[in-house]
């Protein structure tokens, strides 16, 4: 980022940082040039003329003579002289007196050194390693002095330069005193020095190239690191919905530790990656600082973490170590546990966000644990009110329907802003629908065996239920929409009399509309429908079913769906006596699902064909138990009219009341029969006739394995 594009104070700070760093690098280049001139000022050694081998073959063809060693030496000397002259010119071109910022990386490194000799030695080595980065002229000088012709300084060059200076200054050091200091700095230095200088190549340490770690030169110039995966992440100053969390005692304690740069291990665990990231950035925003973000997806590498901490030391920022959700769980992580030494050495906190608390906190430093949970419903309401004040009357409903985090909600608002170009004057209903569409598009979804995600299309008029069943569905929808009013505003939650979410049991014969009812509810709430085949999740392997169920609930919470467990008999059948380990674990699986249902804040629906198949102890867990009986004759007539579209041509002999009275079939069978009759009529090029419907109904009985009751008494000719 250009300093000119930043606010005044920040631009001045970056400019001062860069000027001081360049001044220091230029001085090192000038000192190196002087040392080289002293050592190369002696008389040239004549080169021996090569002697041809015996019996050289005569060659009468004229050819250009090969350059002599003297010519080569002269060319090298000329190039070297040019490079040395550049070093002097570069130093003279820079302002001589530059006042460094208080927290300049070089000053911080000097303050962290145990004594003046170590501070001076590390500074010289670090600036020599950065010399090629400062200008291509310096890179040319290093290339000329590198045996491999690479544009980097070597340790041998550093040794000869610093030893020559020591001799010229009459420092009185023993012959190997300076060499021992340099070897300690390059091979045995403590943090943060060890991670900032690298030795490249093979062979003894003194024969290798001297390189600054990736990101060091950027830090010396006031730039964020450009090395993957590290990047400097700023905080969020205003995060609607997190006000209570930021004011809590434990978070306030962590904020104070960050502001005062106390060495400590701050761990945020729980929730999903997006929730943890929002909490970390809110923490940074409240502390008024940025952090060096270091995401990992596997085992934490101690060397990489030490490098990240060293670069963070240069930027005066803590490291944010983010362990992703898909990182493997390790019972212990020595790299994290041993991080206390480097935290102490750098004098900065380590922020650690992870799905699970670390098995071993960093040793020897204070430990601050901040459990991460989803926003409570009341905070979500404040969030929506802050972002969309024009929907104030619907803030409670939005908070109950969509358990989103502040960053997700802000992204939805940006989507709504783009949608205004299409619809400049949306109604509240339009905005609510647009919010659902945006969240649906942004919800993470990963295919999982036994799980199907469905965008609901069916509306309430597609479902025909007895009055009691319809009233229960309406009450469940109202419970979701009004739960914040009742539980939070009226205090039922604090009194322990209410649970978040809604748990429902649908029971009845197959085809009576249980899945359709769940789809209608999902459509009314503006969420997707996640259909789970419990029979496909139950595993014969002990402990595997719980893992599958945990993945289902995690996925449903991230995708914000209505959760439908189809064929719940597979897991909720009557508990067995504990005869062996398998029976004991089967009961544990059922208990786990019940406990997880208790904590689920969305709508969970379980279906079964026979209520008697379920243990009676389970029924008290459900807020609503809805029966889906086989439809009576009047309902069947309504279903026939519903599934035979008015636009479909019907012959005069079709009597839907007669079909409803004669054939006691379910709504699903009526739908299939109506569709089948339509295809029969289309194949014959005629309107839908009574015979087509009778034949389609007969097929439904055959498919169900039920005895066909025969045909109505009115004479008719069967359609073949």
UniProtKB/TrEMBL annotation:
Annotated stretches, region: Disordered: 37-73
Q: Which SUPFAM superfamilies match?
A: P-loop containing nucleoside triphosphate hydrolases (SSF52540)
**Statement: the UniProt record of this protein carries the keyword Lipid metabolism:** no
The UniProt entry's sequence similarity note says: Belongs to the AAA ATPase family.
Q: What is this protein called?
A: AAA+ ATPase domain-containing protein
Pfam families the record matches: AAA
Tell me the SMART domains matching this sequence: AAA (SM00382)
What molecular functions are annotated in GO for this chain? ATP binding; ATP hydrolysis activity
- Classification via PANTHER family: 26S PROTEASOME REGULATORY SUBUNIT
| ATP-binding is among the record's keywords | yes
Provide ranges: composition bias, Low complexity: 60-70
Q: Which InterPro entries match?
A: 26S_Proteasome_ATPase, AAA+_ATPase, ATPase_AAA_core, P-loop_NTPase
Identify the keywords attached in UniProt to this record, alphabetized.
ATP-binding, Nucleotide-binding
Q: Where is the composition biased (Pro residues)?
A: 49-59
Q: Which part of the chain is the AAA+ ATPase domain?
A: 500-632
